[in-house]
Design goal:
Layout (H helix, E strand, L loop, with lengths): L1 H14 L7 E2 L2 E6 L4 E7 L4 E7 L4 E7 L1 E2 L18 E10 L2 E8 L3 E8 L7 E9 L12 H7 L10 H4 L4 E7 L16 H17 L4 E5 L9 H10 L4 E8 L11 E5 L7 H11 L1 H5 L8 H4 L6 H20 L11 E3 L11 E8 L3 H7 L2 H20 L5 H5 L2
Helix pairs in contact: 4-11, 9-11
Length: 405
């Protein structure tokens, strides 16, 4: 009787499905950016891991326990290209029966930051490794774009010196292409990703603004990588921006027939509509999807809604939004004929008029096709740029800056 039980137990062990201890990595993604390199390892269950660094040569070692060395993990070395700013080469091999070792040979001293993210949106568990250059600047300043750093680098973002005093010859516009990297934003029915559309329009908007005498634009992101919402606001301060415009492409469940453009400003006292509140909630969850590894609190933003100047900034934002909305109405239908308001995190700068432009509905197949059309992208960019021009030239507070030219 005992022997029979033993045979049954052995049979059960032989045919028992593989547990998460032998799990196959679902995906591995690498997002190089001007300021850091991100490696994402996605799995159906949390990965037990160990991270350490070695010298001569400089290396980061990431041990992954109880995973199978095949699929995306096995192909990881192929994803590192010669132009990667931080990593020279990656080697992946089985270190022992229970451990897969990932060795990253570095191009310069770095500061690795590791984070575990729980499942969210379409993602499973994610192990995120952000590799920051080890430079004599603080964590906030590392998110400044290279061109910004060269021209007007500041490590103290809350300097008491007015940015309009420091830059007296041009109006600086921070153009913020929404989403990016791990955060794709909304999906079109034909596969278009919002993050790609916003970057394309953002680049065209930058060129359109730069073509206007007395105005200059800089992007908060220049490629396919994620910038946390708070960092986008801090970048605007870093570049001494006078205006902030965040570019998006809206989506609505079941909204195949919904179309048009909408402009949003910040609200201190709740949203102006249910749709605005839901959209703000969705956009504010970008950090959960994109993944934030550095907890940063800046005193400028911490007092945002407590500062009396915020009310004046919101009023300016509403005026700017109305001018942009008027220009968009010249070539594209409006989903909302007035500037809507809600608590968008990316608009919470206490002293920079800020708007969020939902250019079109990516959930509508017709609008999705338009968003992929370079001519439509150009029209949107030109309309926004003209709206910003109208606002600047109707606002006496910018006269001194323009007069300095």
């Amino acid at each position: 009787m005992l022997g029979r039980r033993w045979v049954l137990l052995v049979g059960f062990l032989i045919f028992m499905p593989l547990s998460h201890a032998d799990q196959l990595i679902k995906a591995v993604r690498i997002w190089p950016s001007p300021v850091y390199t991100r490696i994402v390892i996605e799995s159906p269950a949390p990965i037990v891991h160990h991270l350490f660094t070695l010298q001569s040569p400089l290396r980061i070692v990431l041990d992954l326990h109880d995973v199978r060395l095949q699929g995306p993990l096995e192909r990881l070395p192929e994803a590192i290209h010669a132009d990667n700013p931080d990593i020279a080469v990656i080697r992946v091999a089985r270190f022992n029966p229970d451990t897969v070792r990932v060795v990253m040979v570095l191009k310069h001293p770095v500061e690795p930051v590791l984070a575990n993210l729980a499942p969210v949106s379409d993602y499973g568990y994610r192990l995120i490794l952000d590799i920051y250059p080890k430079l004599p600047i603080d964590a906030i300043a590392r998110f400044a774009l290279p061109q910004t750093s060269k021209r007007r680098f500041q490590t103290h973002l809350n300097s008491p010196v007015s940015h309009k005093t420091l830059l007296s010859h041009e109006i600086i516009v921070a153009v913020d292409p929404g989403h990016g990297g791990e955060d794709p934003g909304a999906h079109g029915v034909n596969g278009t990703l919002e993050k790609n559309v916003t970057l394309a329009i953002g680049r065209k908007l930058q060129r359109a603004i730069d073509a206007i005498p007395g105005m200059h634009a800089e992007l908060t992101r220049t490629g396919d990588y994620y910038v946390p919402l708070q960092m986008r606001v801090l970048e605007a301060h870093e570049m001494h921006a006078d205006l902030f415009v965040s570019i998006h492409a809206d989506s609505q469940p079941g909204g195949h027939n919904v179309q048009g453009s909408t402009v949003y400003a910040l609200s201190e006292h709740g949203a102006t509509s249910v749709a605005a509140r839901l959209l703000a909630k969705s956009e504010n969850e970008s950090d959960q999807i994109g993944g934030v590894t550095l907890p940063v609190q800046d005193p400028v933003l911490a007092r945002t809604l407590l500062d009396l100047s915020q009310t004046a900034t919101i009023n300016d934002s509403l005026e700017m939004g109305a001018d942009v909305l008027s220009e968009l109405d010249r070539f594209h239908s409006l989903h909302n004929a007035r500037v809507e308001q809600a608590g968008f995190a990316v608009l919470k700068s206490p002293d920079i008029p800020s708007i969020l432009v939902e250019t079109a509905y990516i959930s509508n197949p017709i609008e999705e096709a338009r968003l992929n059309n370079p001519a439509f992208q150009e029209q949107v960019a030109e309309a926004i740029a003209h709206g910003l021009y109208d606002y600047v030239h109707s606002n006496p507070s910018f006269d001194r800056i323009l007069a300095g030219r």
